[in-house]
Q: What sequence folds into this?
């Protein structure tokens, strides 16, 4: 095993993308132990693909500075129209990397750092971590020669950072492929925390991707609303009417908290059932009755002839009204499900 504890003769500064996962944690530890002044950057997605708490824990354990950058409308626009296309679902992997690395590059320049590094491993991910994709990403972000991938650097052409002697190439690694055996062994030796390799980007999940596509195609209003796509049951009545039902009390609370001010919130009068978020302008009495019927179907009262529900605009709970449900059959509900 290489010795990564010897310090370089000159202190340099770097910005590293930190997710809290295995590879980025290792990359940060390796670069830090080479005597580099490291700032970890965590990109916060609204739908929470990675665990920020774990990323903070890693940064504290390694002893590096840490900041959070929030992804915003610019990110959602590339999800809508990615230059380099999608992966298996609605995941714009190359465009995503380009966006994050570009913002990391801006921060690098802002603090006067020398380079950006990531935990990428060549051959690990088919869209973004193949040799040609890595080259494109580096060029598109303006980081040519300043983007270091310490886990697989010896399998790539030397960066300007290595050529200038700011980083000793011989102390970098040559890991490749999708296996994680080498990384797991190294993490044990270095005693660093990390998230177990699992989960990943929700945009690769076909159900979540379908909800995202539906939102972008119909009625998208602000970036904040996309957080709620990971919760509940989603139903599309038509291009102007959508309903989301919580599956439990925690989801009910989360959906209400993230509802748009113009959304209608509906609950059974005894609140023994899911909360519904109705996204529609001036919904008709029939629509309101049908939404109450959806709530009824997923409550203890599904066999009742009708139930009473209360509803109000998110922005004005003082104007609460009542409605009786219009019972919906299973085929209707299946047809509406996103």
A:
């Amino acid at each position: 095993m290489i010795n990564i504890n010897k310090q370089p003769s000159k202190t340099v500064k770097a910005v590293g993308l930190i997710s809290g996962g295995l590879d980025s944690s290792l990359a940060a530890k390796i670069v830090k132990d080479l005597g580099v002044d490291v700032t970890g950057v965590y990109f916060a997605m609204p739908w929470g693909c990675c665990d920020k708490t774990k990323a903070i824990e890693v940064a504290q354990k390694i002893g590096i500075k840490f900041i959070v950058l929030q992804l915003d409308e610019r990110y959602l626009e590339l999800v809508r129209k990615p230059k380099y296309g999608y992966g298996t679902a609605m995941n714009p992997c190359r465009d995503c990397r380009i966006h994050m690395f570009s913002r990391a590059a801006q921060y690098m320049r802002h603090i006067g750092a020398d380079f950006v590094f990531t935990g990428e491993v060549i051959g690990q991910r088919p869209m973004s971590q193949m040799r040609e994709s890595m080259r494109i990403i580096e060029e598109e972000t303006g980081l040519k020669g300043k983007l270091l991938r310490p886990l697989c650097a010896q399998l790539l052409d030397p960066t300007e950072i290595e050529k200038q002697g700011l980083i000793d190439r011989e102390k970098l690694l040559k890991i490749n492929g999708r296996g994680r055996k080498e990384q797991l062994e190294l993490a044990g030796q270095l005693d660093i925390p990390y998230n177990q390799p699992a989960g990943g980007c929700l945009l690769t999940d076909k159900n979540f991707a379908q909800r995202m596509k539906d939102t972008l195609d119909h009625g998208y209003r602000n970036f904040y609303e996309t957080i709620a796509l990971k919760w509940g049951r989603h139903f599309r009545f038509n291009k102007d009417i959508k309903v989301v039902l919580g599956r439990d009390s925690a989801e009910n609370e989360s959906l209400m908290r993230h509802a748009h001010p113009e959304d209608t919130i509906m609950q059974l009068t005894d609140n023994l059932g899911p909360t519904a978020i109705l996204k529609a302008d001036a919904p008709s009495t029939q629509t309101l009755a049908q939404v109450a019927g959806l709530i009824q179907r997923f409550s203890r009262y599904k066999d009742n002839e009708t139930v009473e529900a209360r509803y109000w605009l998110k922005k004005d709970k003082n104007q609460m009204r009542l409605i009786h449900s219009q019972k919906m059959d299973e085929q209707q509900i299946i047809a509406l499900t996103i």
In short: Residues 1-8 have pLDDT under 50 and may be disordered. The CA atoms of residues 89 and 289 lie 35 Å apart. Residues 231-336 form one domain.
